Amino acid sequence: MTRHAKNNTASACYTYHERKRDTLRSGYGTIKERLAKDSIGDFDACCLTLQPCRNPVITPDGYIFDKEAILEYIIHKKAENARKLKQYDREKRKEQEELARIAAAEEESRAEKFVNFERSLVVHNGSSTESPKPGSSQDKTSAEKSVSNMKEGRDKILPSFWVPSMTPQSDKKPDLKLPDQTVYCPMSGKSLRAKDLLPIVLTPIDKNLSREELMTRQERYRCPITGDILGNSVPCAVLRPSGQVVTMDCVEKIIRKDMIDPLTSTRLKEKDIIPLRRGGTGYASTNVLEAKTSKPVMQV
């Protein structure tokens, strides 16, 4: 390839490396960035507070939360749903009152039209009740009255298309929909109830350490059956009857043979083994730690 200047962007000799470098500098196109381990929380960190859990609970989908944080979240969402429901009731009541007012006005208008029609049949001062002949002065007067659209208060009824608030589209209100009263999990997006939360037990490496001393260590917990260190690089699972957190190797090699919890001697079912969602590691083979955002493409 021929040599060219740094600012050369001709497609014939604009290399992929230069295109990627200029895209990153200009802010156009799809920008990718690989995240480090420091950007990913630990497996025992709450998905809401991003801090190590004091009273850890797990959802049926395997997401771990601090009990205080997730209960506060559920209470907040229920209060918000109740507020939306009250607002929906107010809007619905207002809409019903508006429909009743319109129906009453239409009924009054029909009654007034009927009365005017009956009065037109009455003979006044010996005048004829026959309809006016075409071309007569009476017919011209009635035609003039019917042509004018600014008399008898009709100017307030007709829309003004040059005023945004008077356009016909502005009168159309969106259909009211009953707000959803379900509380959804902030991670999985599925419905979440407080009774679905399962307390879990994390076995510390050294029971003599205080919580402050335990939080300062990188390796804090272990499997109560095999003694393996728990971390982001070790797949884990929760046993529903006891709430103990064990490694997936322990589940595959020991527990699945008899389907009995070794800690409580309780017979297990397949639904009693909940895989724990773990944090990220620095290796692509474990999980993809990559942030991606799409922006307008740079024109070349």
Write the layout of secondary structure elements.
Blueprint (H helix, E strand, L loop, with lengths): L15 H11 L3 E5 L21 E3 L5 E3 H54 L16 H11 L20 H4 L26 E2 L3 E2 L6 H5 L5 E2 L13 E4 L5 E3 H11 L14 E4 L13 E5 L6
Antiparallel strand pairs: 1-10, 2-3, 2-4, 5-6, 7-8, 7-9
How is this structure best described in words?
The protein is an alpha+beta fold and 300 residues long. Helix content is 32%, strand content 11%. It has helices spanning 16-26, 67-120, 137-147, 168-171, 211-215, 248-258; strands at residues 30-34, 56-58, 64-66, 198-199, 203-204, 221-222, 236-239, 245-247, 273-276, 290-294. The chain has a three-stranded antiparallel sheet with strand order 3-2-4. Strands 8-7-9 form a three-stranded antiparallel sheet. Strands 1-10 form a two-stranded antiparallel sheet. The longest helix has 54 residues, at 67-120. It is elongated and about 105 Å long. The model has no long low-confidence stretch (mean pLDDT 78).
In short:
This protein is an alpha+beta fold. It has helices spanning 16-26, 67-120, 137-147, 168-171, 211-215, 248-258, and strands spanning 30-34, 56-58, 64-66, 198-199, 203-204, 221-222, 236-239, 245-247, 273-276, 290-294.
Number of strands: 10
SSE order in H/E notation? HEEEHHHEEHEEEHEE
Label the overall shape: elongated
The major β-sheet equals: 3 strands, antiparallel
How much strand? 5-15%
If you average the pLDDT, what whole number results? Answer: 78
Structural class: alpha+beta
Rg from alpha-carbon coordinates: 37 Å
Arrangement of strands in the largest sheet:
3-2-4
Number of helices: 6
Rounded to the nearest angstrom, the distance between the terminal CA atoms is 19 Å
Q: Which regions contain 5 or more consecutive residues with pLDDT less than 50?
A: none
Helix content class: 25-40%
